[in-house]
C-alpha cells in the first residue's frame, strides 16, 4: 500500500472511532466511500456497474451498498493489502461460506471493545460464559473470536466455553456471584434453548445474551417466542441479543424487547423491498442496509438479506429474512 493511502487510512481510522453519529457519520461515510471506491477493486467495479462514482455520490443515500453475498465469491480487500486474519462464516447447506479478509484486525478489536463498553460498561468487570464451540473448534468464526476477546479483558474472571459440558455450566450458575449482574451467558439460540429445557431455574442477576443460530438444529421460532421461553426458563425479565455477522467488524446490542442499538460508527438504513435505491422512513419495514465504518479496508456499505425496521429513537428491530435468501447458520459451526 502506498504512503498516500496509509496517511488517508490513518486519518480516517482516528475519526471513525471518535465519530459522534448523526450528521458526523454521514459526512464521514462519504469520505470512506471515496476511499473504498479508489482502493477496493471489487467495490469500484460494483459501484461503476450501478453508475455510482465520486462525481455523483453526494449524499449518504447515493452510496451503493454491496450485497453481503459478494463475500462468498470475491476477495473484498483494498488493493495492495494482505489479510492478517480471515473470518469465515459457517455457511449453509448448498452454499459456500462468506470470507472477510482483515488487513488490520485491530479495527475489529477496537470496534468490539468500544461498542461493548458503550452498551454495558467496563468489559473487565464481566464474566463471560459461552454456549458456543471453543476457539480451537472454529478459529475462523468471528463470533467465537468476539467472545474470546471479551474474555481476554480480564483473565482472572472464571470465563468458560460450555457447549460440550452443560452440567459444568449449571454448577457455575449456582455461584451466588452471578446475582451481581456482571455475568453474561452468551450462546447460540439452539444451545440456549437446549440448556434452558434441561436446566431451568432461578438465576437472578444473570444476563442471557442470544446471538442467533438455529438452522438445522431446532424448529425455527420468532424472536418473541424465543425470548418468552428463555425468560421463563431462567426466571428473568429480559433477554439480551447481539446482531453481528462475518461481513461486519461491529456489533449492535439489544438489552430489551429485541430493540438493537449500534455504536456511533455503525448506521442502519432500511431499504424499500421494491426499490433498493430508496430508503424507508422510521416505522416502515424493509431490507437492512448497514454502514460499518470499521470495515475500512474491505467494504463499509452492505446490503443484507435481513428484514428490519427503524424506530424514531434510532433503535432498530430485526424482523426476519427474505424468503429467497440463504439463512445465516451460526449453528452449523458444529457438525454432527
Structural commentary:
By secondary structure, the chain is α/β, with parallel strands linked by helices. It has one domain (82-336): 3-Layer(aba) Sandwich (Rossmann fold), CATH 3.40.50.12780. The chain has nine helices and 15 strands. A seven-stranded mixed β-sheet has the order 5-4-6-7-8-9-10, with helices on both faces. Helix 1 packs antiparallel against helix 2 (23-39), helix 2 packs across helix 3 (41-49) and helix 8 runs parallel beside helix 9 (223-234). It is globular, with a radius of gyration of 20 Å. Residues 324-336 have low confidence and may be disordered.
Outline the secondary-structure elements:
Blueprint: H1 3-16, H2 23-39, H3 41-49, E1 66-67, H4 70-73, E2 85-88, E3 99-102, H5 106-120, E4 127-131, H6 142-151, E5 160-161, H7 166-173, E6 183-187, H8 189-198, E7 206-210, H9 223-234, E8 240-243, E9 252-254, E10 260-261, E11 266-272, E12 275-279, E13 285-292, E14 301-310, E15 316-321
Question: What structural keywords apply?
Answer:
alpha/beta; 336 residues; Rossmann fold; six-stranded mixed beta sheet; globular; disordered C terminus; seven-stranded mixed beta sheet; single chain
- Count every helix, treating DSSP H or I runs of 4 or more residues as helices: 9
Task: For the largest sheet, list the strands in their spatial order.
Answer: 5-4-6-7-8-9-10
Number of strands: 15
CATH architecture: 3-Layer(aba) Sandwich
